[in-house]
């Protein structure tokens, strides 16, 4: 199998470490940072170390070829190829990668798993905010008029910021977005735009206004071209990121695989 060089655009053998046409390091090799899983076993251990729910809950199957609908997975077939796949809601299978580069294959599922964790955390934050708005405190029968007024004022002071945050906070999740055939990437309060002619990314302030409303409606997982993760702009998640997909999963939160976009190819 051949892959495209991110720098000159020529197709080269996937096992090559450098492009024979321009000498650039290939993205499948260049992408692997310290601490990033490079084997199926390492990815399986990463999954365990981050306290993620059982695989039948997340629908991410590491090292398994699952035939049922609504499943992401990676496995090695009898020919030695590593296969990364997604089974859609209708049972149709989309192959994300098939080839001999285990590190490349593992990274494909690793990045998709991290994006899903971020989406699930964002959903939990929104749900908790909405649930909080519904909470009510019972009024005691012997409350005086002054006590009732104080109770109302205290609750308004406490809940108004949370309500306003839930209503007006439209902070996008880290990842890829598409609008009118142009791809964007969001990370750490910054937007980046993909130039398909230069096959590269650059910072931009010219962001579609629709992203400020419901950015999640435009999120994608199937960007074609140079991956943002292969640029100098990309930053691994750290503890300063409050939706950090690398931090351990909170057992108090719920994972709803039904909220996943199962109709897209990836």
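Sequence proposed for the structure above (266 residues):
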């Amino acid at each position: 199998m051949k892959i495209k060089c991110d720098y000159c655009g020529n197709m080269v053998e996937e096992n090559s470490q450098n492009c024979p046409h321009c000498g650039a390091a290939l993205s499948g090799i260049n992408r692997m940072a310290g601490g990033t899983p490079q084997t199926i076993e390492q990815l399986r251990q990463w999954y365990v170390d981050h306290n993620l729910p059982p695989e039948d809950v997340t629908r991410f199957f590491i090292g398994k070829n699952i035939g049922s609908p609504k499943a992401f997975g990676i496995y090695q077939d009898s020919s030695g190829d590593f296969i990364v796949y997604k089974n859609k809601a209708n049972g149709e299978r989309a192959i994300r990668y098939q080839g001999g580069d285990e590190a490349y294959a593992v990274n494909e599922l690793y990045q998709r798993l991290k994006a899903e964790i971020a989406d699930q955390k964002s959903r939990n934050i929104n749900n908790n905010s909405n649930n909080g708005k519904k909470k009510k405190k019972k009024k005691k029968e012997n409350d005086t008029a002054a006590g009732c007024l104080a109770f109302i004022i205290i609750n308004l002071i406490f809940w108004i910021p949370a309500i306003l945050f839930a209503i007006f906070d439209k902070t996008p999740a880290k990842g890829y977005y598409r609008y009118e055939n142009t791809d964007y990437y969001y990370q750490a309060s910054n937007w980046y735009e993909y130039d398909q002619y230069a096959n590269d990314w650059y910072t931009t302030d010219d962001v579609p206004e629709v992203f400020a409303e419901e950015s999640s409606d435009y999120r994608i997982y199937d960007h074609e071209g140079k991956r943002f993760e292969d640029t100098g702009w990309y930053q691994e998640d750290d503890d300063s990121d409050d939706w950090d997909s690398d931090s351990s999963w909170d057992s108090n939160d719920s994972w709803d695989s039904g909220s996943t976009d199962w109709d897209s190819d990836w």
